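#structure-requests
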Amino acid sequence: MRKSASFLALLTALSSGPALAWVPKLEEQSAQAVIDSAYGRRAATPTFLTVDLSVDSGKFKAPEGSVTVFDGPETCLSDWLTPLSESSQGSRVASLTLSGQADQLLFEAQDARDNFKNMTVEEALKPADGRLPDGQLRVDIAVKGLNDLQQRSAYLVRLKGPDGKLIAPTRFSFVDDWKQVGVSGAQATATTSSSTTTSGNTTDTTSTTTVDSKLTGPYAGTLVYYFEPLKAGLNANDKVDILLRTEQGACAYDFNLDLGKFN
């Protein structure tokens, strides 16, 4: 969904820019930084954090320790590292992305720039349709290998509070990007017929999705969850644990992520 060049620019900024922290609520300084970034007036401002959970040569592409087993047998992790076609553990998480209001503002500012308009801080701080409420953190989970679209609702995702309490998301939805991959490798795009809401650079929908029933094979797409970390006692630059249990139920995983790596 994001262009690779932009992603590389953000990674460069992560290693060379000033200290960062997730922005629960846009204010003048953070909004100005995002706008200036969108218009090329300063180095790119990292507004999201993505962890690549794909497997290469029996290892995660993500840094070592990014994924641990929270609940279930030791084989939960070793099975994940085997080829998907050889696994009995059902679907896999391909990537996990954290973002907030700053990421949505970035795309609003880029759209204004592309339409030859000048976005001001005053305009950026006005309420905008589709923008996250104050204090909400968005978690996009790219999934592959799901055998049944109904099972998207079987995923369980929780935020672990500093006291160990597990916090449920305030809501969840599906991005309208679900596809079915047939045995021959052909793809059929999932279609929906309902109202949708745009959030950042993606579109969410909670409607029933239909696909070409002639194809057989697993599905791939994106699940979206919304949390309120501050209400759980976490700070805007803390490391957080996102816990996930797939549709198979037996295995639950812990993803440790740093809110201090993006705005």
